[in-house]
Design brief:
Elements lengths: L1 E2 L7 E8 L2 E2 L5 E11 L14 E8 L8 H17 L5 E7 L3 E5 L6 E2 L2 H10 L11 H13 L5 E8 L8 H11 L4 E7 L5 H10 L4 E4 L5 H13 L3 E9 L5 E9 L3 E2 L5 E4 L2 E9 L2 E10 L8 E11 L8 E12 L3 H5 L3 H24 L3 H18 L2 H7 L3 E5 L4 E4 L5 H9 L11
Parallel strand pairs: 3-19, 5-6, 5-9, 9-10, 10-11
Antiparallel strand pairs: 1-19, 2-4, 4-17, 6-7, 6-8, 12-16, 12-18, 13-14, 13-17, 15-16, 18-19, 20-21
Helix pairs in contact: 1-6, 3-4, 8-9, 9-10
């Protein structure tokens, strides 16, 4: 493990957990890479942001937000609370989203700088938010992207709230917008109520490396928005990438974030040199995340060993500063005829492989349930219950128990409930990728 950082910035470390031993001819090497950032300064609203962060809040103001009226009222109050959480010096703006996107504050294609006066004016402007019109999420994101591109802030972030489906925009338009915005800013997405499309909200968050969640009761929006903004204000290093270098003959099978949520990064690789590529991780504060790296090495004889991959955490060159190496770790391969050594599964690898399977089983089970495939849904959701029980993922187990009656958690024996509340099913689907940390060994 190595550490590289300026004293004023968070210190990063990389730890690699793996069983490096392979049987003769074995080729697939699995490793869990734990990345930890520590030592960042404490953050409060009074802590000057020094222009390091810019945030755009996108509020759904489509006609459905008025049914019931608590949704629109909750959105105003939640946005006001988020504005109150901004650190002094943070650039910010508010957008009202319908089938078009409109600037609510400060307007004229610019961002305001947070202080006592601008926060007060922004909250006053929220009084004018009213519901009416359709939903075209891509237009909201394009306006946010334009505003954020005008900022020199390193941390660029969006918060998006919707209560409905993206009915006034072709799916291909939203996908193209997400592709264009990826890497330019991160975005947390929230669905309020139960009339929105889970895959749309989670798709926004996934493409823009943010979080997704459901707020079924509008009364909880203020708490959720406050926590989201506090998390954004805690970010101190932007655009960090996980760089994998591999020797000749080694193929990368996949790179996935596996904690705190499952996020497949494999297709997001950007080549950075001979046999090296970067995978985006977004912005960081004081936190820890874990990644599952799988590489395929050439088969070799007993007694041989090789460096299968070098994992480096890098921050790109910005503002005249050169690229920075933040931390580094190594993935190894050693061939042995010791059967016990070569067949042992590293506990971290086993745990997160199970968490990824758990997320997939939930998603496939819910899809089968929607299609009326009772046997398929029962089998997949039963497997999910079993995986949640084995891994100690109590939160997911609790959500599953609202969709199925658990007969035997250890065996994965369940019965589908005859009636399931929309909020319970949507919560399970939205949070299916959230994982529990590996147990201490």
């Amino acid at each position: 493990m190595a550490n590289f950082a300026k004293p004023s910035a968070p210190r990063f470390s990389v730890d690699v957990y793996q069983n490096e031993f392979l049987p003769e001819g074995g080729r697939d090497v699995h490793a869990i890479v734990t990345v930890t950032a520590t030592g960042g300064g404490s953050v409060t609203r009074g802590t000057p942001a020094d222009g390091t962060a810019a945030v755009v809040i996108m509020v759904d103001c489509s006609g459905s937000m008025e049914y019931p009226p608590e949704k629109m009222r909750g959105a105003r109050e939640a946005t006001a609370a988020a504005i109150d959480t901004l650190r002094d010096g943070t650039a910010f703006a508010v957008i009202a989203g319908t089938h078009v996107a409109k600037e609510v504050y400060p307007g004229q294609g610019r961002l305001a700088v947070a202080d006592h006066a601008t926060r007060a004016r922004a909250k006053e402007a929220l009084r004018g938010l009213s519901a009416g019109g359709g939903t075209a999420i891509g237009t909201w994101l394009r306006l946010a992207d334009g505003l954020l591109r005008g900022s020199t802030a390193a941390i660029r972030h969006g918060i998006l709230l919707t209560d409905g489906r993206n009915e006034h925009e072709e799916p291909a338009v939203l996908r193209a917008t997400l592709d264009a915005c990826a890497g330019r800013f991160t975005c947390d997405a929230r669905g309020v109520g139960t009339d929105w499309e889970v895959k749309e909200v989670t798709g926004v968050a996934s493409a823009l490396l943010g979080s997704a969640d459901i707020v079924a009761d509008p009364a909880h929006l203020t708490e959720d928005f406050t926590l989201m903004m506090e998390n954004v204000m805690g970010k101190e290093v932007a655009d960090v990438s996980l760089r994998l270098w591999t020797p000749v003959g080694v193929e990368i099978q996949y790179v996935k974030q596996v904690a705190p949520a499952v996020q497949d990064l494999t297709a997001r690789r950007t080549d950075t040199g001979p046999r090296a590529g970067d995978y985006p991780t977004g912005s960081w504060g004081d936190e820890s995340r874990e990644y599952h790296v799988c590489v395929r090495v050439p088969g070799a004889a007993v007694g041989q060993e090789m460096l299968a991959s070098r994992v480096t955490l890098v921050r790109p060159a910005t503002g005249g500063e050169p690229e920075a190496v933040l931390a580094q770790g190594l993935v190894r391969a050693v061939w042995t005829n010791d059967l016990a050594a070569s067949t042992a599964i590293n506990p971290q690898v086993a745990h997160y492989t199970g968490q990824a399977e758990l997320a997939q089983a939930i998603q496939q089970g819910l899809e089968a349930r929607k299609m009326g495939d009772v046997d398929g849904a029962t089998a997949k959701l039963g497997r999910a219950v079993q995986l949640a029980s084995v891994s100690g993922n109590a939160d997911t187990a609790r959500l599953l128990s609202k969709v199925v009656d658990v007969v035997d958690a250890v065996a994965g024996t369940v019965r589908l409930k005859a009636k399931v509340a929309d909020a319970d099913e949507m919560t399970l689907e939205t949070r299916s990728t959230q994982t529990v940390r590996v147990k201490k060994f």
